[in-house]
Structure formats: structure tokens, C-alpha cells
Amino acid sequence: MKIRLLTGLTLVLLTATRCSDYLEHLPDQRAELNTPEKVAELLASAYPRANYITFLEALSDNAEDKALTTSELINSAPWQFNDVPSRNEDTPDFYWQAAYAAIAASNQALETINSASDQTQYRASKGEALVTRAYAHFMLVTLFSRVYNPVTAATDPGIPYVTEPEKVVTQKYERKTVAYVYEQIEKDLEEGIPLLDNESYKEGAGRYHFTTTAAHGFATRFYLFKMDYTKVVEHANLAFPSGNILPSLRPINSEAYRAMEPLVKLAEYTKADKPSNLLLVEAPSLWARSLRGYRYGFNFNLLSKVVWNQNVTSGLWGYMFYGNEASLFTPKFREHFVKMDPNAEIGTPYNMIPLLTAEEVLFNRAEANARLGNYDATLKDLNDFASTRIIVNDTDEPYYDPARHTVTRARVLRFYNTTDIEAALIATVLDFKRVEFLFEGQRWFDIIRHRLQVVHVPYSRDNILTLGPNDPRRVLQIPQEAQSSGIELNPR
């Protein structure tokens, strides 16, 4: 990994050795950014090359104390609901830096496009630049500000929404408000999505860029946070014009998938040719090699409670887990280690991170339809998902049986012991999502959206840690270095 120090908000620009040379010499060679091809190449760097999974899994209720003799700060600090005093990969500070570096690339592309004499040649790149700028800002406001609340968004501090390349050594920025940030995200999305062209990307590169499917998929997440449920459904159906997401779901319970060796599954999960992966990014990260060995993580107690426990279908989850109490995992991530040179023993570990998946779009639509009173539509999505995940048992009937497993209104009401069908369906969505996105960090997004309490119990059972719905530590701390740009820190 090559690191170039920038100023102000854009603290570091992370570029892999495969990136274009002009990226490694910004701003000295900006004059060379003068063709549609070069702008398109620049936009490969407009996606945050950082992994949020490590600290979000540790923050969530997907992590328990495994009582290992050693612990890593990037895992232990978030589990203890403390700020992470590190700028290394897999930390909040690293993600902040990478996100603003991505935004800088988007803004540089847009400046070039807007000054071009013939902007029609840049139409698709302008769309990608706007959507990537919206995505990076959305992730920042989601992690470093209070979750969107229509009652308080107009006063809750946001994050700087940067729309121009930096021109001075220390640029000053305002956080403004969460409402303002959301307005800017929506503006960029609405302008950018119609400009996208899937054919503009090089063959085989589409899953690393915002295609129309990925962009509409991101829009479902944004509008779910914004509580605009009609638009969630609208964008889900635009992502999959037939409305049928089922063919794009991973066949987790299929005989072929279950028969794969763990190492094969590690490679399969984040492959670009899998229809479930809508947007992927390669990020420097130790997650793949360390997730099994972290002291605070997934263990047999959670496996029993979250996965093996009874669920609304009455069947078993078809996911397969490996390891022991100290190293439990389900295969999702494989490390790609890049040596500094062919003879070196040191280098940078990379992980392929699924930023958007077909499964998430399905869940977003299911929850939105439940909010809108479209209960049959929610049940359809839940049953489509269950058909690719549920089995009768692990021995003589390892398959889905609709006669036994179909989710119905009566079943969800009975399972969750309620007469509120909307609440029961949303509980089903959240339970399904929790299992599906284990080891992917997505659980945290539901925790903050639904104001769920998180309780972390040390192995000694002393000093039990509770993160309540209004605890300021639910908002990640802004990096200390950002203060030089006039950005106030979050309360603690």
C-alpha cells in the first residue's frame, strides 16, 4: 500500500500499486486528468478502501468474550465501547480517512467533467462520481453522527459534505446537520443514478463499480434509514426490474454449496461473478486472518442462541460453521496478501468486502413493505430468502420443504407472541438479517436504526457493559486530526 499525505479532511489517499500513476502524484499531475478514459480510471479510487466490519462486529451483539489470553486493541476497544486509539487498518479513523480520500477522487472527477468542453463524453462517469460521493458521505454520517431521526436531524451534528477538491493547505469545514447531509446525499443520488451506464465499465469490472443495480441497491439502504419506505420499494424494484430477487440470492442450502470445502467457500463468497454481490471493494484488512482469533467475537453461545435456536420457519439454518470455541467461523473472507516485492516477506493483506448484496436489497424491501402494510409482499420476500437458507435437518433431509417451512401471518404472530403483524414481520426480517450477515458488520446498522440495546458481559461477569439507545458512544468518535479543519468532536 502506498500512502500519500494530503491536507485537511482528506488525510490520506490509499492506493494499491495497480492504480494509475497519476493518482500517486496528485495534485502535481492534475492537468493530465483531461480525457474520459482518465476520469473513468480515477473513479476506481472513489470507493472507500477500508473495512468497517472489524469494529462494527465488535460493537454489536454478535461478539462475546471468549476469554482468550491475548486481545487486540482494534477488537477490544470497540467491544468495551471505547474509542479506538489507532489509525491502522480496520479502525474507525482509517475508515474516515479512506472515505474522504474516496470523496476527493469523486470531486476531482466532477471538477474535470464540469470544466470539459464536451461533457456528453463524461455522462456515465459523472453519474458514478455523484453516486460514489453520496455513498461515502452516507457511510460517514451513519457511523460518525447520530442515526437519522426526522425529529432531531435538523439539529444533530452531521459530517462535512465535501463537494470540491481542496485548494488550500488547511481547509476549514462545517459539520452542519444530519438533515443537511441527507439532503445532499439524496440530491447526488437523484442526479447520478440516471446517468449511470453499465456498458461504460470494462469487462468483468462491473461489480467493483456502481452499476444501476448496485446504485438502486444503495438507494434502498439510504431510504430505509431515511424512513421513506415507498422509495425503498421503488428502488428495490428498479434494482431488479422483474421484482424477482430470488435468482440472485446465494444458494446456501443447496447440495452443491453445502458440499464445498471451507477453503472453496472462502473464495466463492466474494467472487465478482456471483449475482448476489452487487458491489465489492478490495480493502487493506486483517479481518480474514484475525476474525477467528479475536478475543471478542462469535462463539458457541451465540451460535446456539442466534443460529441453532428455533426460528419462525421451524427448520434449521443451512449455514455451516467450523472451528472450536476460540475460532468459530462461517466461510466468507479470504486474504489476498500483496508482497512489497517478489522476494519480500512483508506486504499488505487485502480482503474483498461485499458492500452491497442482493440479500440486503430483499431485506430492505421486506421491511419497507411491512411498514407500508404490504404484508403479503413482505412474506413473499421472507419465503424466497428462507427457500435458499433453511433445511429440515443436517442428516437425511438437508433441504428446504415449503410444506413445513413456509412463513405465514399466523406463524409469525405465534412465534413472536404478538397480535401486531407489522412488528412480527419486522422482527422476522431482523432475525433473518442477523444470521445472514454474521461476520459482515451489518447487524450494527439495525442496532442503531431500531435503537436496540447492546450488553457485553465479560467472561468474569464483572463490570457488565451496556450500550443503551441514547448512549453517545453509539456514535463513533471523529478523528482527533480532523480538529485542524474546524470539526468538533462528538460528545462522550
UniProtKB/TrEMBL annotation:
<keyword id="KW-0732">Signal</keyword>
<feature type="domain" description="RagB/SusD">
    <location>
        <begin position="307"/>
        <end position="481"/>
    </location>
</feature>
<feature type="domain" description="SusD-like N-terminal">
    <location>
        <begin position="21"/>
        <end position="224"/>
    </location>
</feature>
<dbReference type="InterPro" id="IPR033985">
    <property type="entry name" value="SusD-like_N"/>
</dbReference>
<dbReference type="GO" id="GO:0009279">
    <property type="term" value="C:cell outer membrane"/>
</dbReference>
<dbReference type="InterPro" id="IPR012944">
    <property type="entry name" value="SusD_RagB_dom"/>
</dbReference>
<keyword id="KW-0998">Cell outer membrane</keyword>
<keyword id="KW-0472">Membrane</keyword>
<comment type="similarity">
    <text>Belongs to the SusD family.</text>
</comment>
<dbReference type="Pfam" id="PF07980">
    <property type="entry name" value="SusD_RagB"/>
</dbReference>
<dbReference type="Pfam" id="PF14322">
    <property type="entry name" value="SusD-like_3"/>
</dbReference>
<protein>
    <submittedName>
        <fullName>RagB/SusD family nutrient uptake outer membrane protein</fullName>
    </submittedName>
</protein>
<dbReference type="InterPro" id="IPR011990">
    <property type="entry name" value="TPR-like_helical_dom_sf"/>
</dbReference>
